[in-house]
Every structure is written in C-alpha cells, then in structure tokens.
Design goal:
The protein is α/β, with parallel strands linked by helices and 336 residues long. It has helices at 19-30, 48-55, 111-124, 140-143, 149-158, 195-201, 208-220, 238-252, 271-280, 309-326, and strands at residues 8-11, 35-36, 58-62, 70-72, 76-79, 83-84, 89-90, 105-108, 130-133, 163-169, 186-192, 202-203, 225-232, 260-266, 293-297, 303-307, 330-335. The chain has one domain: Alpha-Beta Horseshoe (pyruvate-formate lyase- activating enzyme). It contains 10 helices and 17 strands. The protein is globular, with a radius of gyration of 20 Å.
Length: 336
C-alpha cells in the first residue's frame, strides 16, 4: 500500500535539537506537506465527524518524556511509545474512547532518550529477560518512514542480551527491517482477520494480500513471528472465512519452522465506544447490538460487551482447533 503522507505537520520547537528533525523537515518539504512550527495542534473542522477525519491526517512531531513505563500484560512486561495514534481508520478500534475527539498522530523524535529509559528497566530486572511492547497505542510501521524510530529500536534490541521487543501491525512496509541484525530479539506480530472484517472495518490498512507478502518477507528474514486474530466476529459464513485465513497462513509459512504464536481476541465494545463509532462511521456494519451480548467488567475499569458464553466458547474452540490442526509449531498465548 502507499505510504501515509499527512495533510499537515506540526513541528514542536523542542525537536529541533535532534539531528533527525532536519531530515524529516526536508522530507516533508519535498512532499509539499504544510508545516506549522508549533506544539499546539489546532483542528476545527466544524463537526466531531470531520474533526476525526482531519485528525487522522495530522501529525505532530514532538518528544516523549515518559520515564515510568506501565505494565503490558499479557503481551509483554512493559510498554513504551515511539508514536501515538495511527493513520488507519479501523471502526472497532479499542482506542476510540482514549484518544479523544481529535486523535491526531504524535511521532516522538527523542529516540535515544526513550532507549535510555528502556535500558534502565532492563538493568533493574537483570539477569532476567525483559520484554517490551511498542505498539499499544499506535502502529509503528505505519509511521516508520517519517521517523526511522523502529529501525533504531530493532538494532538496539538486537544488541541487548536481556531485552526483547514486540510489535504488532496491520501495515506492510517491512522492507527497511529485512537486513537488520535483529538477532531474533524482535518479534513481529501481524493482525490478521477474515476478508469480511478487513474489507468492511479496517480502512486505510494493508489489504489481505499485502499483509501476506509482508509476513513472508519477515519470516524469510528470520524474525520470530506471531499473529493477532482480532477482533474475531460472528457473521454469515464466518467459519468458512476464518478457515480460509488459517489455510492461507499455513501455505505462506510452510517453510517456517520456528514457533508461531497466536493471540485470539473476540469482538467487544463499550457503550462509550459504540456512541463514537456510530458518530464517526454512520453506515457501519459492526454488530453493536447490546441485547445480544454479555456485559463483562474489563481490566481498565469499564464494562464491555462481549459475545455470550456459548458463542465465546464456540469461537475459542473453532479457531483453536483450526490453528492446532494446521500448525505443529503453533502456541496459542490466550483467548479473550
């Protein structure tokens, strides 16, 4: 797919002391992207729906001053951020209610300072291995061409004896990582799904075949690989389409003999997210019928609507059996 190019870029004056800022500003100027020298992003497009659309094409280049990392179970020990938000427009996104009405993207350019914080956590946990997730609030590959941050991180973790990196993506721009000395210390996980889910709900992301090609490239480069099948949805022909997905992954990875992890997440939503989704995607086909769902208390202090117990168990058993029957080297990390 085409690389994301913002409609407008804001430059926080704090970043100008970093060498990478010059390259980025030159790159934006060559692309004729309007540049505003300010740390304050102004978006006023007249309606919440238009504000959301404008934000998804707006980038602020700034710094990340976070010194205390938070837990990221079950994915990793801690999470850190190279950026926030992303150019994708996934209708079901779990960040709908956490990034505000105007979820513009932030790209952090103080990468060496971020890595210093990570190293301090590795040192404190020595001699145990410490794993870090860098895609909890963003898709780092979607914005990598605007910063080079992820490449630097992979090189850092490749040299680290006790640090490990994990990321997840729906994008396919993986060529910059294929020849890095990753030392198998970075795990690429790809969010995959049925054609119905990708085509109807994952706007501005790599399509099924583009992701498949990226998966093959990363596998050939020797990286550890995993998959998030998320969100798993029940709809007409869902079983046939998820079988097609697993069959296709099996063929694509027939020469990959290392362990392959799977994380299985059923579709869920909160009442607040439902309101935003309907506002932002007026013709959505998402099943948001609360009466057909089970209300469950979530780990972040919010009730969420999940499939009822019998449907949830059907999803778990069906997808798990597909995986186990097709991959001798598969491990299912969790179902939720």
């Amino acid at each position: 797919m085409k690389l994301f190019i913002p409609d407008i870029a804001y430059i926080d004056p704090k970043i100008l002391k970093y060498e990478s800022s010059k390259k980025i500003i030159n790159y934006l100027e060559k692309l004729n992207v309007p540049i505003v020298n300010s740390k304050k992003v102004v978006i006023d497009s007249g309606s919440p729906e238009k504000n959301y659309a404008t934000a998804k094409k707006t980038v602020l280049f700034t710094t990340n001053g976070q010194k205390k990392l938070v837990s990221c179970k079950p994915s990793a020990d801690y999470q850190f951020s190279l950026s926030s938000s992303c150019p994708a427009n996934c209708e079901y996104c779990y960040l709908q209610t956490t990034q505000g009405e105007k979820p513009f993207m932030k790209i952090f350019l103080n990468i060496e300072e971020i890595l210093e914080v990570i190293q301090s956590y590795i040192d404190d946990n020595y001699p145990k291995i410490t794993a870090f997730e860098c895609s909890s609030i963003t898709d780092p590959i979607a914005l990598e061409h605007l910063s080079g941050n992820l490449k630097r991180c992979i090189e850092f973790f490749g040299k680290s004896s006790k640090g490990r990196l994990r990321l997840v993506t729906k994008f396919d721009d993986v060529d910059p990582f294929l020849k890095l000395n990753h030392n198998k210390h970075t795990k690429f996980r790809f969010t995959v799904n049925s054609r119905y889910v990708i085509n109807n709900f994952e706007h501005n992301t790599a399509d099924f075949h583009e992701r498949l090609l990226a998966i093959k490239k990363i596998a050939a480069a020797g990286y550890p690989i995993g998959f998030l099948i998320a969100p798993i949805m029940i709809y007409d022909n869902w079983k046939e389409e998820y079988k097609e997905l697993i069959d296709t992954l099996k063929i694509a990875l027939e020469d990959y003999n290392d362990e392959i992890s799977f994380e299985l997440i059923q579709h869920r939503f909160t009442k607040a997210a439902k309101e935003l989704i309907i506002q932002r995607f007026k013709n959505t086909k998402l099943d948001l019928n609360e009466e057909m769902r089970l209300l469950k208390w979530g780990p972040y202090g919010k009730f969420k609507y999940v499939y009822k117990k019998n449907e949830s168990e059907e999803i778990r058993n069906y997808i798990s059996n597909l995986i186990n029957n097709n991959f001798d080297n598969a491990i299912i990390d969790y179902f939720t």
